[in-house]
DNA sequence: CTGTTAATGACAACCGATTGCCAAATGATT
DNA sequence: AATCATTTGGCAATCGGTTGTCATTAACAG
């Protein structure tokens, strides 16, 4: 029985199986996907043949005839941003567990690439997960009407979303800085098209007003360590004693620049980051930052999307999930200069 | 003319276009893929209709009938390892430029996952790029016979490969340490299944013998920062004054552990990493490491694979590409203790 | 022993393209 | 004007499955 055509190089099809078992191709298809619609002994023969031929269903053909692709697109603005590493890993694991394939696309921080990718994915994926979308609310809503979608860190009415609650963590960060004696604080903003950046700023300035301290907004800065240099210079020039950066990349970049300029952290200026990405714990000094359950966010996003795709079990799928965050204090924040 | 069925929600097909233009579907197909096989005016009409309907070819159908999927699988052992970030970005950019889609898969450092992924990709991808394969030479060779493949950092006769020449960089690192007065040096090994680790060790011990210094091998250690703690303890316990780690993750983890234990770097012990990943420049102290052109390696791998897929232009495709590396000296290496 | 029902499996259409083959149309040639 | 070469474009098969329809069969109740 081991002598089956080892010479036939190309993958086995249901037709090969059907020929061997003397049944119709459709019977094979049913035996494999709807087992109880087929005689148990026939099924056994078919399964045996399939195993022997090392049969794997052709996903293209499956997708074409059934309409389901078994793939989910994951769109991120920048693959090399460590923030997305954990996110990608979270989606990957959860998708694989559910038998789906992940199509990862780097949209290069471009709304156009993002939009065209969505249009293409409409045919080749069953749904998409969009992280930190750069699209307008309208465009996003329109796209969501064409393909099942879950967004991450982008809240638009009508589109299921996973939101990491960094805004509320910013007030924690603010209180932390205030308790250290800081009164002149800056927010180093991220891209103008980033909703997260806007929400963080809104939360921060509201909290600042509430506490009666001054917080000014600087930037915008690109979410890369290289931008940290400009951010550091801007912060120093503005005369603040502490700053809260849009994300860890900017914060880490600031740390490097401040060190170059001989400005001590946290003695001369305190720096707070956001996301707690890879590297935040071993930079110099270690970064005080708002920790986000990023990988978990990815998993939740997948769960929400799959619930949307297979509305079987009555469990009403939530359309919005808020992930909690908390401040992780490390060495980059300290007492304000002049404080005893 | 703007009044075309806006209500029809599903994507346009060549049949829709054919109906509008009053030609056969095959003519549409030809007009779009073999323009000169079709009358220029007919083609113009078809193109106009296609544009108006916002037509995008269905990639599944295309793949099914043509046999080409337009996708390339990229297999990495661990998505969250920063080393692969740049690699992935390199492949992504080059693939997109060539009109291919990237299917990224995390094989979880498992040879079984790797093998089964390859089998599946055989139908859904035109070729694959395998980074740091954990498979045996035989398995890899067998797989390469079934699907066009290019490996990265894995040299097996008969399989096109991109190899980052870290082994030769290890002698540079060794000379660097020797010139600083170190004579007792350790190599903190990576996974046993990693060919890179073995090659580096071979190159290193050969060079050490040549220079007449002692280099011992410790480990193996998993390529994660967490393993750095064990590596640091092992290094300290062995009494060496310098060590060369399999990669930056281990090195950075060592840095953290040594700091915890109050052991100064580089005063008490010097540490050299490998790869120059994200974080190597801003850890504390900044890491001396062997810099690799990782993103470029990804691009080259894609080029080699595509040359293999489309052997059109006579340019004989090389089957092996060696990427140069160099030592980047930062703060984690210094004079051996006891040296003046 | 017959009638009814449920289980079973074969047939064929279809998903959306590609592509070989052939016929019609065009144009050039003599 | 008739003939031949060359375009041009339609038909239909094909890729590998899924799925609706329907005939057949077996099992059971009466």
In the CATH hierarchy, the third-tier topology of the largest domain in chain A is known as Rossmann fold
Percentage beta strand of chain A: 15-25%
Largest sheet of chain A: 6 strands, parallel
> Strands of the largest sheet of chain A, in order across it?
2-1-3-4-5-11
Note the overall shape of chain A.
elongated
- Oligomerization status of the protein chains: homodimer
Q: Largest interface here, residues on each chain? A: A-B, 43 and 43 residues
Set out the fold topology.
Two copies of one chain form a homodimer.
Chain A: H1 14-21, H2 25-33, H3 40-53, H4 59-66, E1 71-76, H5 82-97, E2 101-106, H6 111-124, E3 127-131, H7 137-146, E4 149-152, E5 161-164, H8 166-179, E6 184-188, H9 195-211, E7 214-218, H10 227-238, E8 242-245, H11 248-260, E9 270-275, E10 288-291, H12 294-309, E11 320-323, E12 326-328
Helix pairs in contact in A: 1-2, 1-3, 5-12, 8-9, 10-11
The first copy, chain A, binds a DNA duplex (30 and 30 nucleotides) through helix 2 and helix 4.
